[in-house]
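Notes from the 1:1 (GR / supervisor)

We went over the backlog. Supervisor wanted to see one worked example end to end before approving the batch request, so GR pasted a single chain during the call. The sequence is below; no edits were made to it. Supervisor asked that the structure be written out right there so they could see what the output format looks like.
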Amino acid sequence: MCLIGLLGDVSVTSRRRTTIQNRIKCCLFDHSRRKQQDSRCFHHSSHQVSSKSDTMFSSSFLRLILLLCLLSSSFSSTASSSNYTAADQTLRPQEELQKLKLIRQELDKINKPAVKTIQSPDGDVIDCVSTHQQPAFDHPLLQGQRPMDPPEIPEGYKKDDESCEEDSQLWSLSGESCPEGTIPIRRTTEQDMLRASSVSRFGRKIRRVRRDSTNNGHEHAVGYVTGRQYYGAKASINVWSPRVASQYEFSLSQIWVIAGSFTHDLNTIEAGWQISPELYGDTYPRFFTYWTSDAYRTTGCYNLLCSGFVQTNRRIAIGAAISPRSSYKGGQFDISLLIWKDPKHGHWWLQFGSGALVGYWPAFLFTHLKQHGSMVQFGGEIVNNRPGGSHTTTQMGSGHFAGEGFGKASYFRNLQIVDWDNTLIPVSNLKILADHPNCYDIRGGTNRVWGNYFYYGGPGKNPRCP
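Structure output shown during the call:
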């Protein structure tokens, strides 16, 4: 993390089954109507049951019931806000129990046995998992293997001139760290998965047909290069806490390394910071990664939520909150990210900060990116669900337009790409694009200190963006 201050610029016995189902139905119907007269019901608002109930049910089933009530409450409020009919709000207990069973199965896959557990100040639980037990090694092509040795750093790489600290995540403020031979993994909870619009697609982006498509609500302000073969990219990314207007919207700033077509066989490697209430349950900016090899359809995921990315670093938790963040007319902070293809083995490595290797995406995950990228993008993306029929107020970057400049607008600086001979060079012929410039815009430039850079972002809905 760099400070920029001077640059200016859930078993219960079978004899109780009928009673259980009645209790579930009672909870579902009465809770969704905010009724609390019936003592047979479990109420989400109190999160308690009678002592008699404690003797009837195992603690694990009780936990399922409470989660079911929580789901009912969440569904009810969401349905109401989305103009659902009363019939739509009727939940089927057996279906919900099946959903909770699926959630348990998924959590068993994602959350691995922990050697040590760390409580983060922001509420996250960080599990220190043996390196060889991380989710990546569930992949058939990685089972029984060990992580690769560090690759050769691209020629021309140098640390930024500013003093960068790698302890830039909130969980590290606990003073605890993961022991040698382990990696830190943010624990995924039932609540995380219950927030998701679909259990089957938890941890995945909504499929986008095109980079600049507007029919699914994704909007961008990006700088990009194309027209040659790309073997990596590097940039310093200004970190903010933009407002995200609803649970199912997000705001992010990232680097994309891209190959293939945007329609069906898109390969991407992505890294940066994002705010996603649906994925994380809060509005902290979080360091994240993503990958896909089929245009976001069935492959890939965020962070370590599927087998894919192999983490090698025990001090950086992917998906953990970043701290500190920039403030308007105040201190400015950024993170430096480098993605590059190992010339020897062909895997795509990720570096965070001043020399901290995070891990790599194995080359076999991809089709086109087995060879090289055909485009690199830098910039911001938001999801616009058009609440009430108008543009969202979800912010991009700092929430201010590019024209406000340093200390007010968000930036990318020192934009570089990795060439065919594993050499870092400044980007050339950078093109800029804003899908909706009245909502979020972008302005580029070059100077001696920042090299190639741009300011970008905006407030979303405003008089010029109705």
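Supervisor's comment: Confidence is low (pLDDT under 50) at residues 5-62, 67-89, 161-165, 209-215.
Batch request approved.
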